[in-house]
Amino acid sequence: MSTTDRTSDPDALGRADGADAPGRTGRADGADAPGRTGRAGGPGASDADGLLAEQLLRLTRRLHRIQKHHLEPVGITPAQSRLLRTVAAFGEPPRMADLAARLEVVPRAVTSLVDGLEAVGRVRRAPDPDNRRVIRIELTDAGRATLRELRSARRAAAEDILAPLTAEQREVLGGLLTALVDPGPEGGC
């Protein structure tokens, strides 16, 4: 799936492409290749970086599956969950274009998500009081209740994925993920 396809697919929000074979280490025997140091720029660095990238993709897919499983009882997809959380994060009801920009997707993906959430009464389209040509997206009472349910579902999904880690490991992972997600001005795209 191309980047364009992924960003126009409402259910692809938060989904990554890549293999998802539990327990795979990159080699059939599970051993590291000779000469591989795993250091950036060292012998075998591109192999180690490639393996790391593959592991991150597999983890992303696993997280998506676990999150989807926990969201099913709420009756919402991960993409719809992300849209609801994004609407709630705005100080005032956002425009569709604002949502598309914040979610980094094409506008038609937001339209599909809003259509689905509006059909079940979790959001509503409302005219902007200052410019009737502008439509804003508002949370409904049902949408706010869904957000409360989502918090519990997301905590349960996080516990499932993080269960093998100690509190110390979770703290280290949090720091590493922050460095990757928010790389600063030099590391951004």
Give an account of the 3D structure.
The chain has 189 residues and is mainly alpha-helical. It has helices at residues 3-8, 45-71, 78-89, 96-103, 107-119, 141-162, 167-181, and strands at 123-127, 135-139.
Briefly characterize the structure:
The chain is mainly alpha-helical and 189 residues long. Helix content is 54%, strand content 5%.
Ends: how far apart? 20 Å
**H/I helix tally:** 7
Shape: globular
Q: What is the strand content?
A: 5-15%
Number of strands: 2
Helix content: 40-55%
Map the helices and strands:
Elements: H1 3-8, H2 45-71, H3 78-89, H4 96-103, H5 107-119, E1 123-127, E2 135-139, H6 141-162, H7 167-181
Helix pairs in contact: 2-6, 3-6, 4-5
Features:
mainly alpha, disordered N terminus, 7 helices, about 190 residues
